[in-house]
Q: What sequence folds into this?
């Protein structure tokens, strides 16, 4: 995996954030999940397939939907969207490899702490903003 993602979320179709890795949180995690889920549901009603990406200032957000779960990553706008999609594909495959038994067999009771160790499994996907800052000097 390349270090291209700045932040990352895994969100159910109902808006529950199963996992997130956010360097500088600016909005409450579950509120963000509910908002993105609602926007995606609206987009699905208006256009087949739903929301795939959007851009805010110098960040782009890319959404990948698999098995009714949204994988959302953001990165600098200079990073090609295809690279982010590829990264999300790898991460989503890893997620389902490790946790599909919980989700598909209805053995999950809504406790998001079951997914807290996922960050260790994908940590090499994330850009380190502090290292990026020092690299600029």
A:
């Amino acid at each position: 995996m390349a270090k291209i993602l700045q932040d990352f979320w895994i969100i159910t179709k109902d808006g529950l954030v199963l996992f997130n890795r956010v360097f500088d949180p600016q909005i409450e995690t579950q509120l963000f999940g509910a908002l993105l889920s609602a926007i995606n549901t609206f987009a699905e009603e208006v256009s087949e397939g739903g929301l795939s990406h959007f851009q805010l200032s110098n960040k782009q957000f890319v959404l990948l939907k698999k098995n009714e779960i949204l994988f959302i990553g953001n990165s600098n706008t200079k990073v090609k969207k295809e690279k982010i999609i590829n990264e999300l594909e790898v991460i989503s495959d890893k997620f389902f490899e490790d946790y599909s038994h919980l989700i598909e067999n209805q053995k999950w009771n809504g406790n998001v702490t079951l997914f807290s160790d996922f960050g260790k499994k994908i940590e090499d996907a994330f850009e380190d903003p502090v290292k990026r800052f020092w690299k600029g000097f």
